[in-house]
Write a structure and sequence with these properties.
binds flavin-adenine dinucleotide, FAD/NAD(P)-binding domain, single chain, alpha/beta, Flavocytochrome C3, Chain A, domain 1, globular, binds succinic acid
Length: about 525
């Protein structure tokens, strides 16, 4: 069968990773960018704090490397960290050339970048556009992309599964050949054939009940890669951001760490700054430490939230530096210039993912992965704040350069259409929503900031039966985006739990009461999962 679409490059996802790759590769051939909702909807679009990059004369690559390694708790790959940190300034310059503008400030009569600070950073090194850095980056990339004649955007198209030679029954030269994609509006499943498929589908925050992530973050890339036989690593390291706004009107609104970078202090419900005795950097300690301290404080006091106090700064400063946060708080009846902001931790970032080389190559020829979906070794057991946009930018650029140099492999002519079997319209959508809610609630209750083996085992057992239920549902009913996401969520939840169960120590973001110490008896290792 001839595929419905054939492109030189198929990019899954329109966040910073996918768009950067598309823009850099388009001179060489036709590019399809496939994205689940509208083109801007991505984690990238919500990024607040900014991009970590050494640009100041008071900062050095060595310091950025050291801070990243320290946050990563012994699991970062130092060569990868150094490479990404050192390539940052060049990639940032390209982003600026493309139209991105970062906030500046006046210093002795001249303008310079206004560098922010976040947890775990020893220097001011975060380039930002006030507190809407992601929206500005996404806008700049999409504007550039719209002008490119070789790039076609497919909005409201959800990738279902990768097509590989092995899945088609060939026993040699396994390779990714394309992807099955649901056109969400028409309900039709289409075939996209390509010799190079790029996974840039972002993270999996939606696997948890409370998250800072938008609804696209359902772990689709990790699930698709795993089903295609590609290894994933370190899925136990889910980063919980310490300060998500606690308000019924804004369940997943982030209060940027940059607020603490400007002197914001975490206080408990009694008004005490509880981080002082916990870490020398107090409220600006690395995220894993702050999130755990908040968790402990909530359990100790029985309170529903803690408070972030930046009332010592002037209203004028807050309105100008944090316009989005300032107005969201006001919308919720909180005047951050006069009162502390109620906050709680929420799932924020997936540090593990599809195993790749530092240039985004996966084990499966023809499949590349980058951005939050990938695990390059940069983040180790805990990502340093604002290193993810940097990683996506650098690795997407490298991948584009690498793929352009590759000799074109032989085209696979015959790709079978999607088999929908006896699929019928689902008459009980309630089952999908119920299962979705159950997964997110059990992940929050049993696989959160502080874990135990017993709770993880309970989660594993329930997820196994949910997996079977979802699988039955999946084959009997017509494909919808919700069903695709539910199938991926349950698999990714299982991968997180299995990884957590196999790590018999506490390290970085993985903290378990059954193994509260870091294992120093042997060199630290990654948790690798690969389907049989
Ligand atoms: P994303 O930007 O998430 O893009 C994923 C894309 O894939 C989306 O277009 C989505 O629709 C698409 N997609 C997903 N599944 C499918 C599918 N099945 N089919 C088709 N398309 C699909 N990091 C920093 O470095 N600095 C920050 O200041 C910062 N602030 C943040 C604030 C918030 C609120 C959040 C949520 C994250 C923040 N992060 C920050 C993390 C950072 O934004 C992300 O890690 C990064 O943007 C990920 O980029 P990406 O391109 O890999 O994925
Ligand atoms: C933030 O602004 O606090 C988010 C930064 C990040 O996740 O890197």
């Amino acid at each position: 069968m001839v595929a419905d679409h054939r492109f030189d490059y198929v990019v899954l996802g329109s966040g910073i990773a996918g768009l950067t790759f598309a823009l850099n590769v388009a001179e060489k051939g036709s590019v399809a960018v496939i994205t689940k909702k509208n083109r801007a909807e991505s984690n990238t679009n919500y990024a607040q704090g900014g991009i970590a990059c050494v640009t100041s004369t008071e900062d050095t690559f060595d310091l950025h490397v050291r801070d990243t390694l320290e946050a990563g708790a012994g699991l970062c790959r130092e060569d990868v960290v150094r490479g990404i940190v050192e390539e940052g300034p060049e990639r940032i310059k390209e982003l600026i050339d493309l139209g991105m503008s970062f906030s500046e400030r006046e210093n002795g009569g001249h303008q310079e970048l206004d560098l922010g600070k976040e947890g775990g950073h020893s220097k001011r090194r975060i380039l930002h556009a006030k507190d809407i850095t992601g929206r500005e980056i996404e806008g700049a990339l999409l504007t550039a992309l719209a002008l490119h004649p070789n790039i076609e955007m497919f909005e409201n198209h959800a990738a279902i599964d990768l097509i590989t030679r092995r899945k088609l029954g060939f026993t040699t030269d396994n390779r990714c050949l394309g992807v099955y994609v649901l056109d969400v509006k028409s309900g039709k499943v289409e075939t996209f054939a390509s010799q190079h498929v790029l996974l840039a589908t972002g993270g999996c925050g939606k696997v948890y009940l409370y998250t800072t992530n938008p609804s696209i973050a359902t772990g689709d890339g990790v699930a698709m890669a795993y089903r295609a036989g590609v290894p994933v690593a370190n899925m136990e390291f889910i980063q919980f951001h310490p300060t998500c706004l606690f308000h019924p009107k804004a369940r997943s609104f982030l209060i940027s760490e940059a607020v603490r970078g400007e002197g914001g202090i975490l206080r408990n419900s009694e008004g005490k700054p509880f981080m002082d005795g916990v870490h020398p950097l107090a409220s600006l300690a690395p995220r894993d430490i702050v999130a755990r301290a908040i968790d402990a404080e909530l359990k100790r006091t029985g309170a529903e939230c803690v408070y972030l106090d930046i009332t010592h700064k002037s209203r004028e400063f807050l309105e100008n530096r944090f316009p989005a946060i300032y107005s969201k708080c006001l919308e919720c009846g909180i005047d951050m210039a006069l009162e502390p902001i109620p906050v709680v931790p929420a799932a924020h970032y997936q540090c593990g993912g599809v195993v790749t080389s530092p240039e985004g190559r996966t084990e499966l020829p023809g499949l590349w992965a980058m951005g939050e979906v990938a695990c390059t070794g940069l983040h180790g057991a805990n990502r340093l704040a604002s290193n993810s946009l940097l990683e996506a930018l650098v690795v997407a650029h490298r991948a584009a350069e690498a793929v352009k140099k590759e000799k074109a492999p032989k085209k696979q002519k015959d790709i079978p259409p999607w088999q929908s079997g006896s699929a019928q319209d689902a008459d009980e959508l309630v089952v999908i929503y119920h299962n979705w809610r159950e997964i997110r609630q059990l992940m929050w209750d049993y696989v959160g900031i502080v874990r135990t083996t017993k709770r993880l085992q309970r989660a594993a057992s329930r997820l196994r039966s949910l997996g079977v239920e979802v699988q039955e549902y999946y084959w009997n009913y017509k494909m919808t985006c919700d069903l695709i996401e539910l199938r991926n969520l349950v698999l990714v939840a299982e991968l997180i739990v299995d990884s957590a169960l196999s790590r018999h120590e506490s390290r970085g973001l993985h903290f378990t009461l059954d193994y509260p110490e870091t294992d120093t008896s042997s060199p630290p290792g990654d948790t690798l999962l690969k389907p049989e």
